[in-house]
Amino acid sequence: AGGILGFWLYFRFKGNGISFKEQIRYLDVAAYTFPFGWLFGRLGCAMAHDHPGAITSFPLAVSLESEAARRYIRLIYEEAGRQAELLSGAELSRLGFHDLGWYEFLFTALFLVPVFFLLGRKKRAPGLYIMVFPLLYIPARFLLDFLRVADATYLGLTPGQYAAAAAFAVLLALAYSGFPSKLFRGDL
Questions:
Q1: pLDDT in tens, the chain (188 residues)
Q2: DSSP notation for 68-86
Q3: What DSSP element (H or E) covers 20?
Q4: Which candidate, 161, 44, 164, places its Cα nearest to that of 101?
């Protein structure tokens, strides 16, 4: 949102002579770089364990072997009103918790960055990266939200999942309609 606001301010006050088509090209360059920067942001979240999820025996989970880790996850479950779901100390110490920041880091490093790197080596339509990043990221984020502990759910989904589904539907409709190709052919 901050980046979009920055672009809007720039185009509004400094880039008055830049056509809408050229503005899309500028945004596309920024969208290309986004996964590379996102990688470092997600690494920070993973290191700080900012996004703890449900208790699990999944091999990539953050271990609850240490007392500090168990205290942390107890606090998260307590704040969510779900402390009754936690196991006892000895059983809990053999498990871990899903770290959504860690999983997003892995998804970005192992999937998004390589895809964008490969796309950057090919001729592409302007606006492609603006569409590709959310179309690839939204499904992963939608699935990861099922692992959240503290988020409220309505009919089984978090507000973020509803927003993701709506955004994904709009982006698919735009992609299916041929946008932004129509924009650059002058059809819009």
A1: 777 788 888 888 887 788 877 888 888 888 899 899 999 999 999 999 999 999 999 999 999 999 999 999 999 999 999 989 898 878 999 999 999 999 999 999 999 999 999 988 777 777 888 888 999 999 999 999 999 998 889 999 999 999 999 999 998 888 888 766 655 555 54
A2: HHHHHHHHHHHHTT-GGG-
A3: helix 20-48
A4: 44
109 CB-contact burial (10 Å; exposed 0-12 / middle 13-18 / buried 19+): middle
Choose among 52, 51, 37: nearest CA to 133.
37
Output DSSP code: residue 158: -
Q: Report the C-alpha gap between 185 and 87 in whole angstroms.
A: 60
Answer yes or no: are the C-beta atoms of 68 and 22 closer than 8 Å: no
Residue 125, CB-side half-sphere exposure with 13 Å CA sphere: 14
Q: Rounded distance, CA 56 to CA 107, Å? A: 19
The partner residues of 55 in beta bridges, in order of sequence, read: 97
Place of tokens 């960055």: 113
Q: What angle do CA 98, 104, 105 make, to 5 degrees?
A: 110
**Residue owning tokens 């309609």:** 177
